[in-house]
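ok here's 16S rRNA (Guanine(966)-N(2))-methyltransferase RsmD, seq below lol
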Amino acid sequence: MRIISGIHKGKRLTAPKKLPVRPTTDMAKEALFNILNNRYYFDELIVLDLFAGTGNISYEFASRGTEQISAVDADYGCIRFINETSAALEMGIAAYKSDVFGYLEKSKEKATIIFADPPYDIPLESFEKIPELVFKNDLLLENGLLIIEHASQMDLSHLDNFVEKRKYGGSIFSFFENPDPN
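and the structure came out like this:
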C-alpha cells in the first residue's frame, strides 16, 4: 500500500502478511480522497477509522494534514502495526484495540468523517448496525460523513441517512449524512 498525497506522498508501507486485512485499493482510495478534497479542509477534520486494519485510510488523512485521528480495530497485530507506523511517520494517530460495535455503543467522541471498512464476509445486519449506532449515538459532527466500504453485491441504500454510493472495482463506498435540520 502507498500513501497517495500529502507530506508522505509516494511512501510505500508493507504490513505483516499475517494480519487479517483487505486494504482499500489505491484506486478506490484515490477516488474517495478526491471526493473529500472537494468538500473538506483536511487540517480541520476529526476522523474515526473503524475496522482500521493496516491503518491505510488513517495514514492518508494524516499525510494530508489531519491531526485528530482515532483508529479502531479488534486485532492486536493491526493496532501494533498502526502504532508503530504512526510513530515512525510522526503522525499521532490514536489506535484502540476494541470490538467496533462495542466501541460505537460506548463512544461519546464525535467525528467529521467516520470511515468503516468491515470484513466483506460479515452479515448484512452487521453492516446495517454501523449507521444505526453512529446516528443513534450522535457521533457525527454537523456536515459530517459516514462512509462504509463494502462489496459491490451489497446495497445499503435502503438505510436511513443514506445519500449516495460510488463504485470502484469490486468495492462500493456508501455515504451517509446527518439529516438536514431544516
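fwiw The two ends are 42 Å apart (CA to CA). kinda neat tbh
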